[in-house]
Write a structure and sequence with these properties.
Layout (H helix, E strand, L loop, with lengths): L11 H19 L1 H4 L3 H18 L7 E3 L5 E3 L2 H4 L3 H19 L2 H12 L4 H18 L2 H18 L6 H15 L8 H10 L3 H26 L8 H11 L11 H19 L7 H4 L1 H13 L6 H7 L2 H19 L2 H13 L5 H15 L4 H14 L7 H12 L9 H12 L6 H26 L1
Antiparallel strand pairs: 1-2
Helix pairs in contact: 1-3, 3-17, 5-10, 5-15, 6-7, 6-8, 7-8, 7-9, 7-11, 8-9, 8-22, 9-11, 9-22, 9-23, 10-20, 10-21, 11-23, 13-15, 17-20, 18-19, 18-20, 19-21, 19-23, 20-21, 21-23
Length: 460
């Protein structure tokens, strides 16, 4: 039997029932810590409930899929609902980065920059800030925060500048979400938006990098002023600081010089391959997920007898969370919940070409992302914009990406990296409450979101 196509209208009561389930899932994700449950379990439970209700109420299309040539293939509805391209990008990139970390490449870069600063606090802030943005773009914002944050603790304690640690960690936490906007694979919302809108790696980078540069410079300038981080002016102090950072050994984390060199070449090749996927013959048909998985396999060959250790390190909670989320959103689409929300989004954005619509979408995305996970929001909005056939060059896509990323800087629970920053503060005896974070981060976040809104309206 061919896959059934549903043409009958869904009763409003059924749509409202599934809307209630969607709201309940979002609330549960916001209360993840209080529920003592991983996000994959929370969304997995809702995925099961949605599938059962969707099937019982006759909302889901069942049957075989007919391939070119007449061959029929049975694909369960919950398998077809998952965007496997996104899953492949996340798994492949995660494995590639985990193996590359083992080479000591990123630790070497971090310590070389520390030495180049000569131990001057202001130079150190600018070097670490730039490193945070680049690491967030090349790795992920959590890994970047752990690497740079941990190095900040060691460096400032050796330099006897521990009083500046709070400012460093806060600024670095905020910059992880700015850096998350730099490339298509820097953050999950970028991947979702790029995949839905058909935005390529190079196009994404060229359009987002000017904003990232301005936001990074402004954040570091404002941070230095607010936290009193100044350059060393006394010659004796500068000499003392240089001697202290000279004791850092950038080669300490390099177990094999050969693998270190190979990892550096592989990282450059990986970025080049991802950037040129859409124009490379054969590869462009296989997609960015194939490229990510291929480079993961290449790197895993180095540790071919212990790959299970890297499989354990993959964030399976995130992967299963994504798969379950795609299923939930697919069911919501069949229940016409997305159509209902789409009416609200359509009212918000107007005809899709107005400046007010883009600004409203960016600001609402940022506010929502500040209190709960930005991934469900991005996935839902991407599906709605795609259903409305919003062109890939529309600023609405960028409004979603900018809002989802930068909203994480409004509260300590807005993103995983800001939560890591607060955790490092507590670990090293620095007081930082929820309200204290909001109070200190608000000037940065408001400025970043305001500039992002102007940038999207004027240049995208």
């Amino acid at each position: 039997m061919e896959a059934e196509v549903l043409t009958h209208p869904v009763p409003l009561a059924v749509t409202l029932l599934f809307t209630g389930l969607l709201v309940a899932m979002i609330v549960a994700l916001a209360l993840e810590e209080k529920l003592h449950a991983k996000k994959s379990v929370i969304v997995g439970v809702f995925a099961v409930i949605c599938l059962l209700l969707g099937s019982a109420l006759g909302l889901l299309p069942f049957g075989d899929v007919t391939l070119p040539g007449g061959q029929r293939l049975h694909i369960p509805v919950y398998i077809e609902a998952v965007d496997w391209e996104v899953i492949a990008i996340i798994v492949g990139s995660s494995l590639f980065v985990d193996v590359t970390l083992r080479s000591g490449l990123f630790g070497w870069i971090a310590i070389r920059l520390t030495k180049a600063s000569g131990g001057d606090p202001l130079k150190l802030l600018w070097f670490y800030g730039g490193m945070t943005v680049l690491f967030s773009a090349a790795l992920n914002n959590v890994t970047a925060m752990i690497i740079v944050g941990s190095l900040s603790v060691v460096s400032l304690e050796r330099l006897e500048r521990r009083d500046k640690l709070l400012g460093f960690l806060l600024i670095e936490g905020l910059l992880t979400n700015v850096g998350g906007l730099l490339t298509l694979i820097s953050s999950v919302p970028n991947i979702i938006v790029g995949n839905a809108a058909g935005i390529g790696f190079i196009e994404f980078f060229l359009k987002s990098s000017p904003y990232v540069l301005v936001a990074t410079v402004f954040t570091l300038w404002l941070g230095a002023r607010l936290f009193g981080i100044r350059a060393l002016r006394d010659a004796a102090e500068r000499d003392h600081a240089r001697r202290r950072v000279a004791g850092f050994d950038e080669n300490e984390g390099i177990a094999s010089q050969g693998f270190f060199t190979f990892a550096a070449v592989a990282m450059a090749a990986f970025i080049l391959a991802i950037a040129t996927t859409s124009v490379t013959p054969v590869v462009r048909d296989l997609g960015m997920g194939f490229v990510a998985m291929t480079f993961a396999v290449i790197m895993l060959i180095r540790y071919k007898s212990e790959v299970d250790q890297f499989f354990k390190a993959v964030d399976w909670d995130l992967i299963l969370f994504f798969m379950s989320l795609f299923v939930v959103i697919n069911v919501m689409e069949h229940a016409e919940v997305l159509a209902l929300i789409g009416e609200g989004v359509r009212w918000l954005i107007g005809d899709g070409d107005s400046a007010g619509g883009s600004a409203s979408l960016l600001l609402s995305s940022a506010l929502f992302s500040s209190v709960t996970d930005n991934i469900p929001l991005t996935a839902m909005l991407a599906r709605i914009l795609d259903a409305q056939r919003i062109a890939s060059e529309s600023p609405l896509w960028w409004a979603v990406a900018f809002g989802a990323n930068l909203g994480g800087n409004l509260t300590p629970i807005g993103s995983a990296s800001t939560l890591v920053a607060v955790t490092l503060m507590h670990k090293h005896g620095l007081p930082m409450s929820f309200g204290g974070f909001v109070r200190r981060a608000l000037p940065f976040a408001v400025a970043q979101i305001t500039v992002a809104t102007a940038y999207v309206l004027l240049f995208l």
